[in-house]
Amino acid sequence: MRAAVVRSFGGPEAVEVVETEVPEPGARQVRIKVAAAALNPVDAGVRSGVFGGAGKRIGLGWDVAGTVDATGVATAWSVGDEVVALDHGMVKPLGTHAEYVVVDTDAVAKAPASVDAVHAATLPLNALTAVQALDLLDLRPGASLLVTGAAGAVGAYAVRLAALRGFAVTGLAREGDEEFVRSSGAVGFVAGEAGPGAFDAVLDAAVLGERALVWVRDGGAYAGVIPQARPASVRGVRTEAVEVRADGAQLGELVRLVDDGELTLRVAETFPLEEAAKAHARLAEGGVRGRLVIVP
Predict the structure, then answer these.
(1) Which of 54, 67, 200, 201 could form a disulfide with 221 if both were Cys (CB 3.0 to 4.6 A apart)?
(2) pTM
(3) What is the domain range of residue 89?
(4) 15-19 and 2-6: which strand pairing?
(5) Do 270 and 295 contact (CB within 8 A), yes or no?
């Protein structure tokens, strides 16, 4: 089978599409024939060596939508099931940017019935990051929440999911994104600096760090999306950072929200697997709204 990998770190040109063996599922694992797999900023980090692994062949891709193709023992999934999953891991020999991928059975959820595989592939990593960050904040309904990067992939999910939980959400994004951010459920919008201590909590999808911490009230809460970038606590503000984990049950709830029309999935552009390096180059250009998706 074909798979996108890096064998030396660098820019988009470091991405190679190689021939490799089809992986076999073990106990409590399933093999998925990949229909679509989103490209995320974490893939660019892996490609450039941010997470280490020098001297190894490293597979790319975390999100997958496709069809169960084979199963190991002790799994509830059957061949032919249409599914989505998160294939978690920074340094792994194969990722989801491939024709087949093996994942743990507990990472898998039934695919949304209301969208195609290309759109479904944009859900797992970003939506799980958003919902798990919200869980870390542990807010009560009515709490005021600022979401930075509110028009981005994680931020947009965070705005919508927070609104569904009954939080008073303000989105921070570029001026041109106000209509979209408000359509996601934000009751407020900021294009520049928010007021000091203006919010009970901040979900910092834009990774602003200490700058965003200023906008949290004394004794409030901050949740980031990169553990290594979590700012130190000040003024009694509790600081957390999500390290996203695969969770098929939680992913299943997100799928339900998609099928109920509560979550919108955004695709910016698709690329065939053999053009994975071009997809990385497009991501590096910036300004992408929605996700780039690899299609084997």
Answers:
(1) 201
(2) 0.96
(3) 2-123+265-295
(4) antiparallel
(5) yes
